[in-house]
Amino acid sequence: MKSLLLQFKLRRLRATKLTADEFNVGKQQLVSLLRERPMVRMEFDDRHTQQRSPMNQLFPLLSLRPMYIALVLALAVTVATGGGAAIAAEQSLPGDVLYTVKLNVNEPVKAALTFDAKARANVEAKRAERRLEEAEKISAEARAELEPEVRAEISTNFKRFADQTRERIAAVDVEGDTHGAAELSVNFATALRAHDAVLARLSAEATASSTQKIELDDLRDDVKETTLAVSADLKAAAEGRQKAVENKIAEVVKFIVEVKQQTNADARLAAARAALAAGTAKLKAAAYAEAIVEFNKAFDLAQEAKTDVKAKVRVDTDGLIKLKINP
Amino acid sequence: MPHSSDQQFIRWYDDYADAIFRHCYYRVFDRERARELMQETYTRAWEYVRSGKNVENARALLYRIANNLVIDEARKRSSNPTYATSSLEELHEHGFDPVSRHDHLHELVTTDEVRRILEGLNDDERSLILMRYVDGFGPQDIARILSETPNVISVRLHRCVQKCARLKSAVPTPPKTSETPAL
To answer: What is one GO biological process annotated to this record (chain B) (predicted)?
Structure first.
């Protein structure tokens, strides 16, 4: 309800407009622009495709899709430098001249070349981890220190890519690959814990009152917060799956009772219940990925039990009893 | 009689200028800058059209250009503190508030509460909320504009709405004044 009220209030922002003067001044400026820089090609129609050359088909993509812009930039950098700049950028750290190439060209290009949803999630996770690796490298160098501005930049980018990773994992889950999404979450959380251990060691080695220690501890807070969020996502996914299985078993039990058939369905249903119990135990033990595996097994067994009953009823069409099968 | 390209383009201005301005305004919270960004959006759109490229969806093109301009603006602001916008309080101290073209008191619909919630979002989140609930785009259209998949947009929108709800709970209710319309 609160969300609907907020949405209603947001819609009322539509009343925000230009004043009449502002609108007319802007229109006049546009008219002047059109006069100073007239159309050079034939007239266009924005509803029908006309005389589209292959380049015109490509260029809208190249002009408008950021990932293609990144590809073009990467190609330009490679051609201009013989590939040296792009390769050198890979080793750069925040504050280096080529760091922008690494962050805004090299990495987006890698992302653009992955089309599978799981692979994209992995790429984003790697981008988040690389930020932590950069902080670790800077801190480990004897001649350098992790300055507040650099740490802030690393934190901002780490959180951005971590959020994108979680979104991509959620998208994999939405597509139906619950086990794949769980695996991604587990792997990401494991990697984050490993980085936290490295940052903890570096923090312990730093002088107690040094800027380095403060910045490392701040970064560790970001990592811990993200790890908790990933674990919470995984737990929510496991609980969601548990609920789905409970509903499925209840549905099949009701179906079997209605049809009154003794088939292998009972055995399968018993196995489904056992798998549900095993999954619940794993959930309580916070082994969320294993819980999801058990819940998926339980779901499949329950569905097979239902299919068994439906098949049996189809076979029993000897004219004596014809049962209506509910889908 | 078929429309000339100039007339067609001016129609885009008539149809979408308010929407593009509004979108920019609630991203940068600076009326003058929002007007400039809106104007720049149309300038770039004209250059795009002028070069002979085909436009299948004018509205999507304009939003995509505006979104990229606002993102650049946000990057400039984050790297240059002197470039930051005024806070909501500073704007109000200077008597600033968005006004509808009709200038009727009851149409001053922008409440402090909603603006504070929007200010509590980061730029990407604000962009999504505005496109969905103010500009009226569906997740598919937003995905096309931002070059993302609809699933990712749906997930992000869900999280943004949850964040808005949390921000709403944290926002103190402003005192009612005789000039503030009740919502």
So the answer is: DNA-templated transcription initiation
